[in-house]
Structure to design on (392 residues):
């Protein structure tokens, strides 16, 4: 007896969509099950097989696509397979542009490596170095790092990069935006030439491609949701509002029934603090995350938001890079960004992993040209909300 063609194709599709079809080890599959992942995202389907084969990879993907698991799962699997008892050396290095992103990657790695013997650690600036040094001394196989602290540790002789076999450059475009290019070049010069390199960026500008060419050898290229396309799962609304009515409008929107938690964006640190003050005075649980906050305060705010103790997190763009909160219902652009691509990054924080999301933008008379730029980039007009009490 044999299956009809259609049935056979359906079964094949089903099989192709599971993690086990990607040849991940039972220990990783158990961890993924515990994490609640049922099927791989497109970037995971495309990237995991070539990485397991040892190929270099150029991944065009932004946060929210599942790229962290796409690179960390196969690296963990390969580290575990070659693990030997004895002294540990750093064999995998993941570079991330910000502390928040580095911490988030480490958090993911920790949950995936739950049943492995691979040891991992994260180092980043802005905090005392001694706890990080202690952890390194205990022996680490996989290190997540921001460029500045990594070089600092290398110069102090605390870290050697000579045993690196896996190198990941995450959010390369942000690295360039943030002026890390010289640090990255220095780090690459310290890596063994025989290694596997994975390069991720949300954009593919000339600069990015030329940097990728200096790092990668014969890479496999995978690309998902280019930054120009705002995902269909996110509904986008615009409210025209005079500047002086913005705070009331914000509260009005937060009170609407379907707002679970909101990530609110401002352009400046002062603006973020002001919004938090206004909201807390009205009884909202809100906190700000920006560059002037201590590392402790930033982590507390992020944790509070993740475990739902906070209703609102107000962030500036730099501080929010890579912030990833599950089931975030609303992103609110209290101030529209000056750069249209930033809008796409901001709203990509909602509508993750198949969930529905809502992006709300406030537009004052000074913001009209920014709105135009955004429309030109995304090619999807936002729905205009006219019936609200705080308009012109
Ligand atoms: P990333 O793009 O790596 O920042 O991941 C975005 C979010 O998607 C994170 O919260 C991940 O935990 C989650 N995620 C990644 N892969 C999957 C998957 N296969 N199924 C469900 N959620 C996932």
């Amino acid at each position: 007896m044999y299956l009809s063609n259609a049935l056979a194709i359906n079964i094949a599709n089903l099989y192709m969509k599971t993690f086990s079809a990607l040849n991940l080890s039972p220990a990783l599959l158990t961890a993924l099950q515990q994490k609640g992942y049922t099927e791989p995202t497109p970037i995971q389907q495309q990237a995991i097989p070539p990485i397991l084969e040892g190929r270099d990879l150029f991944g065009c993907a932004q946060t929210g696509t599942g790229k962290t698991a796409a690179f960390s799962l196969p690296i963990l699997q390969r580290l575990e397979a070659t693990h030997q008892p004895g002294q540990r050396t750093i064999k995998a290095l993941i570079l991330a542009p910000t502390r928040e992103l580095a911490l988030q990657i480490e958090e993911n790695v920790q949950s995936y490596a739950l049943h492995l013997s691979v040891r991992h650690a994260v180092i980043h600036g802005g905090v005392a170095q001694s706890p990080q040094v202690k952890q390194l001394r205990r022996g680490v196989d996989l290190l997540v790092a921001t460029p500045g602290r990594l070089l600092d540790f290398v110069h102090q002789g605390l870290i050697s990069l000579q045993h690196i076999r896996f190198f990941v450059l995450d959010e390369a475009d942000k690295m360039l935006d943030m002026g890390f290019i010289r640090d990255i070049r220095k780090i690459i010069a310290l890596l063994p030439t025989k290694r596997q390199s994975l390069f991720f960026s949300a954009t593919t500008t000339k600069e990015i491609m030329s940097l990728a060419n200096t790092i990668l050898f014969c890479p496999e290229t995978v690309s998902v949701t280019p930054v120009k396309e705002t995902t269909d799962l996110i509904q986008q609304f615009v409210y025209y509002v005079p500047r002086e009515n913005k705070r009331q409008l914000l509260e009005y929107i937060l009170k609407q029934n379907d707002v679970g938690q909101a990530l609110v964006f401002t352009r400046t640190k002062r603006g973020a603090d002001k919004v938090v003050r206004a909201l807390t005075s009205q009884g909202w649980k809100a906190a700000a995350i920006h560059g002037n906050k201590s590392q402790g305060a930033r982590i507390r705010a992020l944790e509070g938001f993740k475990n739902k103790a906070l209703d609102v997190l107000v962030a500036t763009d730099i501080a929010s890079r890579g912030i990833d909160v599950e089931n975030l219902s609303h992103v609110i652009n209290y101030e529209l960004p000056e750069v249209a691509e930033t809008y796409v990054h901001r709203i990509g924080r909602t509508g993750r992993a198949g969930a529905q999301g809502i992006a709300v933008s406030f537009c004052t008379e000074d913001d009209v040209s920014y709105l135009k730029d955004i429309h030109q980039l995304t090619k999807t007009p936002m729905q205009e909300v006219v019936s609200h009490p705080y308009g012109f």
Observations:
- Confidence is low (pLDDT under 50) at residues 6-16.
- The radius of gyration is 22 Å.
- Residues 37, 40-41, 44, 63-69, 324, 326, 352-353 surround adenosine monophosphate (CB under 6 Å).
